[in-house]
Amino acid sequence: MSNASPFRKRTILVLIAVGVVAMLGFLLTATYGDRFERQRGNTPSPNSRYATGFHALYQLIERSGGDPWLSRGPDDRDDGLLILLPNVRTQPNELLEAMSSHDGPKLIILPKWVAAPQELRPSREERVAMVAPRVLQRLLSSVTRIEPHGEDADARLRYPSGLALRPFRTAEAMQAIEGENLVGLIEAPDGASVLAEVKGANTYILADPDFVNNLGMANRQNAQAAIALLRALDPDNAGVVAFDTMLPFGAGGRNIGQLMFEPPFAGVTIALLAAALLAGIATFTRFGPARREPRALAFGKRALIENIVSLARRAGRTREGGAAFADAIRDWAARRLAMPRTLQGEALDAHLDSLQTATRYAATAAALREAKTETDLLRAAQHLDDWRKEVKA
C-alpha cells in the first residue's frame, strides 16, 4: 500500500492561491465597496472625464506648475484654495461642514446641468435639464441667500473687482446669481454675478461651471482665464489647490478594514501577511505525504518475523537465537552440498570450514554462538549469511 500524498503538490498550491486571492478580494470589496459605489456614475468631480466633470481643470493646474491634490476630509487640507463641488444631492449641512474645516479661501462651483450617460455611448453624457433655481437656493441656504437666473449667451461680462482676471469666453446661456450678501467679481450686464464673493467669509461662488469644467477647458481662452482666476483668488499660495471629494463622493465611514490597508496600520498588516506566508511555507516543507495508521496485526512474512523478534526481545531471549541460526545454516549447507549423514558436530564444521570461501565458516559461526549483545548478534548473523550466499553461488 502506497504512502504517497492523496493530493498533488500543484493542486494544493493552486487551491491555496485561489483561496488567498478570493479572501483579499472579499476584504477589499467589503472595505472599499461603498467608496467604489459612490464614485460610479457621472457625478461632476475632479476625477470625472465627462463634459460636466473637472478632470481637465485638475490636469491644467498640475501641468501649469501648480500643486493640486484630492482632499478626502479635514485631515488633509493645508494652506491654499479649496474648491468645493456640490451636486444636486448635496445637503446644506454637508456643504457647511466641508467649508468649516478650511481656514483659507474657498471656491464653490455650483451645479448647472442634470446630465446622464448616453445609452449608445456610455463614455459620453447628454444634458437632460438645467438645475432648478430652488435646488441652488436650498444648496446655499447655509452659506447665503441667493436668487439664481439665466443670462443670454451673447451677454458681455464685466470684471469690476480690479483683480487680475482674464476674460472668459461664453458660448451658451449662462447661470448667474444675485444676493444682498454677495459682491460681484464677474458680472452680467444686468448686475447679476457669475463669480461672487460672500462678504466677510473668504468664500467665492462660481455660478456657471461651464467656464472651468471639461467642456469649458476645451477652449484655450477659458483655460488661461481659469489659471488667472485661481491665482487671483489666492495670490499668497498661487497654484496650491485642493479639490474636495467629500461632496461628490461622500466622506464614507472609517472601518476596521480601512485601518488594515491604510497608514499607519498598513505596515502591521503587511507584517502579519508575511508571517502567515512564512508559516505556510514552513508547514508545507516540514510535513511530507500523509502517514497511514499501521494495522494492529500486519500482513506478510516480514510482519510475522517482526512480531517474533518483538516477542523474543520482550522475553529477553534474543541472544539464544544466535546458536539456532548457526545450526540452521549448517544444516542447510549439509543438504545443499549433499554431505553424508555420518558427518555431524565438529566433523561437519571442519568440513564446511575447509570450503574455499572468502568468509571463514568456523570463525563466523563461533562469533554468532558467542554474541552477547544484539549488535554483535546481528553483525555475526550478517557475516554468516554472506558465507551462505557464497556457498549457494
From TrEMBL:
Organism, as annotated: Sphingomonas tagetis
The entry's keywords: Membrane, Transmembrane, Transmembrane helix
Transmembrane segments: 12-33, 265-285
Official protein name in the record: DUF4350 domain-containing protein
